[in-house]
Amino acid sequence: MNRPGLLCFLLVFICAALLAWNASGEHPATGLGYKSVPIQHYRFSTVDRDAQMWSALYAASNGKLYVGLCTHADAANVYEFDPATAKMRHLANLTILSHERGQGTWTNGKIHVQMQELDGYVYFGSLSEDNGPPAIDAASYRGPYWYRIEMKTGKVEQLSRINSFWGLLGQAMDKKRRLIYGLAEDGHLYKYYIDEDYTEDLGRVDNWDVCRTIFSDDQGDVYGSYAPGRIWKYDVLSDRVLDLDQVQLPVIGQSRTMANPMLDRKVQWRIIEWDPVDKAAYGIIGGSNLLFRFDPHEDPEGKITPLALMLPSHLRKADTMDYPPATLAMAISQKERKIYYIPVTAGDFDYGAVSRDRPAYSLLLWYDLKTKERGEIGLLRTTDGRYAYGAGGAKVDKNGKLWFVGAFEEPDGQMAAGSIQGRYYSLGLGCYDPTQGQAAGPRN
Which CATH architecture has domain 37-439? Predict the structure, then answer.
C-alpha cells in the first residue's frame, strides 16, 4: 500500500474507532470498576487557560476560596471564588503585578505553596520554574517575592524579596509570633517577619530535591522531610535547624545516591497538615500513599504511626512499582473529623506528563479519625459528565465541603489547557458535599 493509501486507511480506522466508542456510550473510566460521585465544577478563566496547579488553594475565614494557578513557561494567576454566588474573580497576574511581563526575563510565574491567613490577608510566596523565554539566561530572574491578598478588596500586593534566585515550594505560618517560613528550591529554610517585611535565611535543611509541604506545630516549631524518610526540625526557641535521628517515616525502598541523583519524592512525605485538635500532623508518604500520624511531642523526637494505605482498592495488593505517586490533594475535615485524599488510579499524574497508557482518574477516599476506618467514595465526575484526571490541592471549608483543584476533561478544544492521554483538559475547581453525597453549591 502506498503512503497516501496508508494514511487514508489509518484515518478511516481512527474515525471508526471513535464512532464505535461514541455509539457504545462507554468511557474508559467505566472499565475501572468504581462508581462515580457527582461533584460541582467551576471554571477559572477562558482567557488565560492556566495549565497547572500545585498546593495553592485556601479556604478563608470570609467563606471565599483563594487559588494560585500557573502555566510552565508563562505566568501565575491568582483567583478568588465566592461559593455563595458561584462567582470566579481573577485577582492578579504575577508577571504583570511584578512588572516582569514582556521584559525578556525569567519571571515569578508559579505558586507552589500552601497559603495562610492573618489579619484579613492571605499570604504566599512565589518561584520561577522555567517561567520566561527559554532562550533567556535564567540568571535574569530577579528572585521570588512574598505576596498577600487583601480579603476585603481582593487586592494582591507584592511585598519584599525572599532571596536572589531560588523560589519557594513549602510554606508554613506561626501566627503567634507573626512569622512565615518558606522552604526554597536551594534547600534553605527562610523566615519572614511579617511586620518588618524582612526575610532571614535560616540555612540549609536539605541537599537535594526538597519536600513539597512543611508544617508548624502548636509551639511554633517547623518540620519538613528529606530522603530517605528522614525529618528535620527548626526549633524556634533555640533558633536551630536539627535533623531528627530517632524518628523515621515508613517508606518503601531508598533514594538514589548523590552519585546518581534523581527527583525521587517516594521516600519523603508528599503532603502533610497540622491538626490542632489532636495536636499532631497527618501526612501521606510520596511513594506508597500511606497515611501516617506524626506526634512531635511524644518521645524524645516524636512518634510516627502508620494509619492506612490510601490507594485505590485495585492496587492495594499490586506490585509496589505500580503504585501511583502521591498527590497533594489531602485535607482534614474538622466538622466530620475525617481526612479526605484524592489519589489517581494509575500512572504518574503531572498535568500532561502521565507516563503510562493506563487510564488515570481521581478517586476520592476518606479516613475516619474517630473510628480508624478507611473508605472509598468514588471517581470524581462533574454533573455534566466530566471526569477529573488529577488534583493538585484540596481544602475543607468551615461548612465541611471539600474543595479541590485539578485537571478536568474538556470537550471544547478552544478552552483546553493541554491534553492528557489523548484527551483535552482544563483546570477547574471542584466541590464535594459529604452531607448530600452529591454536587454542592449553585450551578455556574
Answer: 7 Propeller (2.130)
